[in-house]
């Protein structure tokens, strides 16, 4: 929703949120105000404590003393708000306001990012380039494992050390800020967000192919600055321009749905999606397993528990009046591991059952689509499960009717997201994306308006556009090839695909136009002659133009598979 808001405005918003976050961190170290809200005689405050109420940890009642609310505000108000934003407004909203993402860009703003010497193999010229993380590097391939591991570690440390110890929580947040700034110095772009941030897997889960109110990049005219892509304000013209350094080929900040489908089978993707539900269940369940009751969690007593750090090696499990002698430091991660394993197995089994059931029903689905269906189901269950517990230490203090209204909101929002997402397919996305390029080519044909029932080409749906394209089968081979070349060129300019990936990306279009596979490489060679930079790995400014043409043609020939001379079936 915020992708069209001017960058200058968003810059001010990020500064305000960052200052607010820093004030909250400072309040964890010194807070003379919020303890007044928890005084037992403050009848106007819903957060006042009840000194006569016994909140037990196992067999002992916790001492009830007025407490500073910094931890409660952070864990039971701010964090749940972030989860709600992700599902409803999407990563594009969150990434444009996220203080941590903002602070990771401080080295870029100061012009002190790390650079390295790179020698151009064609000219021999040595230049200083920003450092990015290669997508074929170990981290580029396996970052989801790293981020999910950091997420698990962070939640474990939260239960053990920083839930109620305000100094430890302040140190934890400051350390996270320092890590983001350090990564922003070491690597260009949004490398912190893409490869390191522990919240990135959560964003991936709750956004899905698209959030409830998020924008749809593939419908936007190109070129355009979309969603939360990196952008700066040109100091000379005052206009916004892209600041993308290609730190990630399929970028979540440029087109979330494209990234969703492109990385559906990426290593660690299943673990994140299915394991996250296990983490949600395990995290809240552990409060019961530790204390032996739900009062400990729902009253928010865990946000002001005394001597939390000293209790790290306390008894970790207390079930039905029996203490199990496993240290809390170990019990937390045992709980996490068991629930992650259970939900991961559930997810994989459900994928197979989904394919089997759909096949029996005469509607066979691909492994990709079955995975999408189960991903969608796990996301909405995670959302509903989270808000059955998350924020409840604050929400349960509301009067009955506002509380019921919030519960209804969560059910409705989750149901709407499920309805929109469960029907979505990869083919549908590609058809909508391709329709933009097809319309441009149809405009050039000067079709008889009577064929469109008085509508313009731009008013046609993606399916109607494809149907109209099939009419081109009756046209000459030269016209169909010309149309195909125009579409491929437009897709390359939009960066919807690249030279090596365009063969498979445009396969369905070739079938619709009755073109051969070899025609695709004819198209690439023609594009390499007129637009070499779209296929070359370097920009024309770094090599001479004739070298770029040669390089682009080589890429076009190398992309040709061994069976490319055969026609499509």
UniProtKB/TrEMBL annotation:
Keywords, alphabetical: Membrane, Transmembrane, Transmembrane helix
Keyword Transmembrane in annotation: yes
Transmembrane segments annotated in the record for this chain: 12-30, 72-94, 144-161, 167-188, 271-289, 329-349, 370-387, 399-419
Official protein name in the record: Cyclic nucleotide-binding protein
Record organism: Stenomitos frigidus AS-A4
């Amino acid at each position: 929703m915020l992708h069209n808001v001017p960058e200058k405005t968003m810059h001010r918003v990020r500064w305000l949120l960052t200052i607010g976050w820093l004030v909250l961190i400072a309040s964890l170290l010194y807070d003379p105000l919020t303890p007044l809200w928890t005084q037992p005689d403050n009848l106007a405050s819903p957060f006042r404590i009840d000194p006569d109420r016994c909140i037990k940890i196992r067999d002992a009642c916790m001492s009830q003393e007025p407490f500073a609310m910094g931890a409660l505000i952070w864990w039971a108000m701010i964090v749940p708000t972030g989860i709600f934003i992700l599902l409803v407004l999407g990563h594009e909203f969150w990434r444009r306001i996220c203080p941590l993402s903002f602070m990771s860009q401080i080295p870029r703003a100061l012009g002190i990012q790390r650079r390295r010497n790179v020698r151009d193999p064609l000219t021999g010229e040595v230049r200083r380039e920003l450092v990015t993380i290669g997508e074929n590097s170990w981290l580029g391939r396996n970052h989801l494992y790293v981020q999910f591991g950091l997420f698990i570690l962070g939640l474990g440390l939260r239960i053990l050390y920083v839930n109620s110890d305000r100094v430890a929580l302040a140190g934890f947040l400051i350390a996270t800020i320092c890590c983001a700034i350090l990564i922003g110095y070491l690597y260009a772009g949004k490398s912190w967000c893409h490869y390191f941030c522990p919240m990135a897997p959560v964003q991936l889960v709750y956004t899905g192919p698209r959030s409830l109110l998020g924008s749809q990049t593939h419908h936007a005219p190109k070129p355009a600055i979309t969603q939360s892509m990196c952008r700066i304000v040109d100091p000379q013209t005052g206009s916004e321009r892209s600041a993308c350094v290609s730190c990630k080929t399929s970028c979540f900040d440029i087109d979330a749905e494209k990234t969703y489908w492109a990385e559906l089978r990426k290593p660690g993707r299943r673990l994140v999606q299915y394991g996250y539900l296990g983490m949600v269940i395990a995290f809240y369940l552990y409060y019961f397993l530790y204390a032996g009751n739900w009062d400990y969690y729902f009253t928010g007593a865990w946000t002001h528990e005394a001597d939390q750090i000293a209790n790290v090696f306390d008894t970790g499990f207390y079930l039905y009046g029996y203490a199990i002698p496993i240290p809390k430091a170990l019990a937390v991660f045992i709980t996490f591991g068991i629930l992650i394993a259970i939900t991961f197995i559930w997810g994989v089994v459900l994928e197979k059952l989904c394919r089997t059931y759909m096949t029996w029903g005469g509607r066979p689905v691909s492994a990709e689509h079955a995975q999408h269906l189960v991903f969608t189901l796990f996301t909405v269950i995670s959302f509903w499960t989270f808000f059955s517990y998350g924020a409840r230490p604050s929400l349960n203090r509301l009067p009955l009717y506002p509380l019921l209204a919030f519960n209804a909101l969560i059910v409705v929002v989750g149901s709407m997201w499920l309805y929109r997402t469960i029907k979505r397919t990869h083919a549908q996305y590609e058809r909508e994306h391709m329709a933009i390029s097809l319309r441009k080519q149809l405009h050039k044909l000067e079709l008889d308006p009577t064929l469109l029932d008085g509508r313009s080409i731009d008013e046609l749906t993606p399916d109607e556009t494809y149907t109209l394209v099939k009419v081109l089968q009756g046209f000459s081979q030269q016209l169909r090839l010309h149309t195909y070349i125009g579409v491929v060129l437009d897709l390359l300019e939009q960066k919807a695909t690249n030279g090596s990936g365009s063969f498979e990306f445009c396969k369905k279009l070739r079938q619709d136009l009755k073109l051969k596979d070899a025609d695709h490489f004819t198209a690439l060679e023609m594009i390499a002659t007129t637009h070499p930079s779209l296929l070359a790995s370097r920009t024309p400014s770094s090599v001479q133009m004739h070298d770029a043409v040669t390089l682009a043609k080589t890429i076009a020939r190398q992309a040709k598979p061994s069976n490319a001379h055969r026609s499509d079936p």
